[in-house]
């Protein structure tokens, strides 16, 4: 397993951010910003960063906030942290058309915020909702997507949740970029209840980046 590293990165303009990253052993295929879940940069996030590096991506998770920190995450918080992290990737030699973003749970919502505000090569959201933070509702921004976006969602027979995802699919399709929304009936929002769905979702994520970051 590729090891992760954590550094405090400071820009010449004074902006600073703690980053956890992993580098591939061979050629770098591109750079991916990994947006963390509600508990901050957890062991699970580090595992994701490491796993993406093993697939050839320079993967980096900005510490937008730390676990237990008071306050709610806003869209501007997400964009500010992502912009600094993208600058770090560019400094590492990643070309602009080989930059992407991915997030799980809260990070999934954050990834959609980025994909509707920044022009990147690709974006992936796995789960996510905005009810516990000051992030916009997904259907309010999906029609404004400016980066190719894949949304992956699980449901456990919740009709309200299913309707929301289907509405999100419809709104995203009205944007001017490539989009796809995949729903896994029987899987919860983290796919813990269905390892098969989790494995397929991982392959879909890799395939989306393979197709759009080249």
UniProtKB/TrEMBL annotation:
Gene Ontology MF term list: carboxymethylenebutenolidase activity
Keywords: Hydrolase
Pfam families named in the record: DLH (PF01738)
InterPro entries: AB_hydrolase_fold, Dienelactn_hydro, Dienelactone_hydrolase-like
Domain Dienelactone hydrolase: 21-212
Enzyme Commission number, as recorded: 3.1.1.45
Name of the featured protein: Carboxymethylenebutenolidase
Originating species: Amycolatopsis magusensis
